[in-house]
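Final report, Chapter 2: Outcomes

The project's central promise was a pipeline that accepts a single protein chain and returns its three-dimensional structure in a standardized token representation, suitable for archiving and comparison. That pipeline is now operational. To close this chapter, we reproduce one record exactly as it appears in the project archive, with the input sequence first and the structure output second.
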Amino acid sequence: MAFLTRKVFKQSAQRQHLLDTTIKELVEKQQWKSWLLSPGKG
């Protein structure tokens, strides 16, 4: 039972990491886009 729980926890942790990475990439793209739209401000 503990093994099963650990496996599920590991999968959810990987999914969370994937979500964090995706959000980070979106934020970075958004920052790049805004920097591109307003040159000389940052």
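Archive annotation: The chain has a mean pLDDT of 86.
This record, like all others produced under the grant, will remain available to the consortium after the project formally closes.
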